[in-house]
Design goal:
Shape: globular
Largest sheet: 8 strands, mixed
Radius of gyration: 19 Å
Number of helices: 13
Number of strands: 8
CATH topology: Rossmann fold
Strand order of the largest sheet: 1-2-4-3-5-6-7-8
Distance between the termini: 34 Å
Number of domains: 1
Strand content: 15-25%
CATH superfamily: Alpha/Beta hydrolase fold, catalytic domain
């Protein structure tokens, strides 16, 4: 039987000069808000969050929104415009302000996944007084090294497996230079192989189609009409935002955060290799910080070990 929620809202909100599509779900308006920032750029994940973390609705109000020009927030008019990180950060600030006003609260809890963890740290720096605690999942910390290590993982796996087609493709696209491939198509070649070799979901041999597209089709959160928006929005966001994302170096630019910080990291992640986030985390100055390993996960312990991630949020993050 489908569960019913006292708070179950789908909203299109005009914020910061654009329209953002929100999903909010909870059981008690007095509960603190938990805002999720999705990855990509442009890879929306509300369909996973609302399903896998549904049990958290007894202690949090869950809030997701498809970022500017992505998923249900995608429009052809937006895709014809330039977009930069300052604009996207402004959208996130506006989203926080709206949620705090809507639920009459002073602070909310923030979760950032993958690229969303980059945006999340920027948001923590911009409005620290409004963030009760920050939780990173697949935390990005050093863009250039991130891409080098991820490429080397795929190359090593292809050699071990004798995957001649993969080796040919990797030779063609070459090692990323300062984190950049010659084209987004080349980046997708690497990401598809990284996913195939289990660097995105531990122990799973998937393609980007089976890991991303099929779950969207099966979810009530998106329709068939949304699939084209989703795909177009993902490539639009990558084109516009990939350069600043790969320029990320939090050891230099985010040495201090003023709220509790929790990193929930899959041991086998080769999309955002944890050794880089750990280097940043170990040097980070924060009033409280905790690193939590997920031994059976790669890039998404929020999905791969959903029950344990749920318990970490309850037992360690809530009230931090």
């Amino acid at each position: 039987m489908k569960r019913r929620y006292p708070i179950d809202e789908h909203l299109k909100l005009s914020l910061n000069g654009t329209t953002l599509d929100f999903r909010i779900r909870g059981t008690n308006e007095q509960n603190p808000v938990l805002l999720f920032l999705h990855g990509g750029p442009g890879v929306c994940d509300r369909h996973f969050v609302l399903e896998d973390q549904a049990p958290l609705t007894d202690v949090f109000t869950l809030a997701c929104f498809d970022q500017r020009g992505s998923g249900k927030s995608y429009t052809r008019e937006q895709a014809a415009r330039h977009m930069d990180m300052e604009t996207v950060l402004g959208d996130a600030v506006a989203a926080v302000d709206w949620l705090l006003a809507r639920f009459r609260q002073e602070k909310l809890y923030l979760v950032g996944h993958s690229y969303g963890s980059y945006l999340g740290v920027l948001l923590c720096q911009r409005i620290p007084e409004k963030i009760a605690a920050y939780t990173g999942v697949g935390q990005l910390a050093d863009g250039a090294e991130n891409e080098r290590i991820s490429y080397e993982f795929v190359l090593d796996e292809a050699e071990k497996r004798g995957d001649r087609k993969a080796l040919k493709d990797l030779a063609r696209i070459g090692t990323p230079k300062n984190g950049y491939y010659a084209s987004l198509d080349d980046l997708m070649v690497q990401r598809n192989l990284m996913t195939k070799y289990g660097g995105a979901a531990h122990g799973k041999k998937e393609s980007l189609i089976t890991s991303m597209v099929l779950p969207i089709l099966r979810s009530p959160e998106y329709t068939l009409l949304d699939i084209a928006r989703y795909a177009n929005g993902a490539f639009y966001n990558l084109r516009e935002l990939w350069k600043p994302v790969i320029g990320c170096d939090f050891i230099e630019s985010a040495a201090k955060l003023s709220m509790p910080v929790f990193i929930t990291q899959g041991r086998h992640d080769r999309n955002t290799p944890p050794e880089l986030a750990k280097r940043w985390f170990d040097a980070l100055d924060a009033p409280k910080k905790e690193w939590v390993w997920f031994e059976e996960s790669a890039h998404s312990p929020i999905r791969e070990e959903a029950d344990r991630w749920n318990e970490v949020l309850r037992a360690r993050v809530l009230g931090a």
